Amino acid sequence: MNLLVAYLVIGIGSALGGLARYGTGALAVALWGAVFPWGTILINILGSFVIGFFATFTGPGGRYVVSFDARAFVMVGICGGFTTFSAFSLQTLDLMRENHWGQATVNVVLSVVACLFAVWLGHLLATALNPAPE
């Protein structure tokens, strides 16, 4: 893929991921309020699951090996536009600056541990769905 097409494909994926992030965040605020960053945590967990699943399911030895372009579209574009570790970092800093140390700690633990668990679950699911090695 030429460089211009790569930027276009990743840019479209990023736009779609950003729109999905906005919608998921708005839904989380509507459901749980805006006092604690549940939307950011949910987005990071979902994004971690998707990238873990997609990387394993479509990579070498996966059930559906896809092109580098398709992987870039999903993993760099969509997941990059969707996940929010920069927002997570800012929200955690804001909680600390407001002396909400307990909430900041819960935010860090839930985001990091739950996202590592989600990427592992995505990997396990894709591994189970992939054909057995020959």
Structure notes:
The protein is an all-alpha fold and 134 residues long. The chain has one domain. It has 5 helices and no strands. The longest helix is centred in the first third of the chain and has 30 residues, at 3-32.
Kindly list the characteristics that best describe this protein.
globular, 5 helices, single chain, mainly alpha, 134 residues
In short:
With 134 residues, the protein is mainly α. It has five helices and no strands.
> How would you spell out the order of helices and strands?
HHHHH
In whole angstroms, the N-to-C terminal distance is 31 Å
Q: Tally the structural domains.
A: 1
User: What is the overall silhouette?
Assistant: globular
Number of helices: 5
Cα-atom radius of gyration: 17 Å
Mean pLDDT: 92
Low-confidence stretches: none
Give the DSSP E fraction (strand runs of 2 or more residues): under 5%
Give the proportion of residues in helices: over 70%
| Main sheet summary | none
Structural class: mainly alpha
Q: What's the number of extended β-strand segments? A: 0
